[in-house]
Amino acid sequence: MSEEQAIIAGGCFWCTEAVFRDVIGVSEVESGYIGGTVENPTYKQVCSGETGHAEAIRVTFDTDVISYADVLDVFMGTHDPTQLNRQGNDIGTQYRSAIFPLNEAQLAGAEAAIRRAKDERDLPVVTTIEEPTQWYPAEDYHQEYWEGDGQRNPYCLAVIPPKLAKLRKSFANRSKTPAE
């Protein structure tokens, strides 16, 4: 087993975390904040849009099971990389679509993933590639949110099931749960 990490931001971290918890080869998903200027930001600070952080996830995956390229293809296919600083009703730079490569190989992989995404869409892809800054884990109550409070949260109930359905349909060979 060879583990690697990827840091990606695709809107609300509850939503991207829920998707990646269902991906074969992913052993851990942590919600957090990256890309900003404030040390140890809180959820409230990040939500204000004034810290520069993105809501993001740090995905730990087994490269013998899933490649970084496949992780990024799932990412691009389960959020809208054509929306600038928003995902649906979540608006602000904290909800931007971004990839934070952790080394040169990941940088090349991120560039290739954006090219593939552009080739598959009519609208411009606005996903950015950003220098990884300090990673700050989100507060404990944000971790594994969908598995807990999220399934009682109307926002999550409206947004997460369609993302999971897209994963299970478009990436059936990557999902731990079969399509319904």
TrEMBL record:
Catalytic activity reported: L-methionyl-[protein] + [thioredoxin]-disulfide + H2O = L-methionyl-(S)-S-oxide-[protein] + [thioredoxin]-dithiol; [thioredoxin]-disulfide + L-methionine + H2O = L-methionine (S)-S-oxide + [thioredoxin]-dithiol
Similarity-based family: Belongs to the MsrA Met sulfoxide reductase family.
Gene responsible for this protein: msrA
An MF annotation (GO) of this entry: peptide-methionine (S)-S-oxide reductase activity
Recorded superkingdom: Bacteria
Broad class of enzyme this protein falls into: oxidoreductase
Species for this entry: Croceicoccus mobilis
Name of this protein: Peptide methionine sulfoxide reductase MsrA
NCBIfam families in UniProt: msrA (TIGR00401)
SUPFAM superfamilies: Peptide methionine sulfoxide reductase (SSF55068)
Keyword Oxidoreductase included in the entry's annotation: yes
EC number: 1.8.4.11
Domain Peptide methionine sulphoxide reductase MsrA: 5-156
Keywords: Oxidoreductase
InterPro entries to which the protein is assigned, alphabetical: Met_Sox_Rdtase_MsrA_dom, Met_Sox_Rdtase_MsrA_sf
Function of the molecule: Has an important function as a repair enzyme for proteins that have been inactivated by oxidation. Catalyzes the reversible oxidation-reduction of methionine sulfoxide in proteins to methionine.
Active site: C12
Keyword Oxidoreductase: yes
Record Pfam families: PMSR (PF01625)
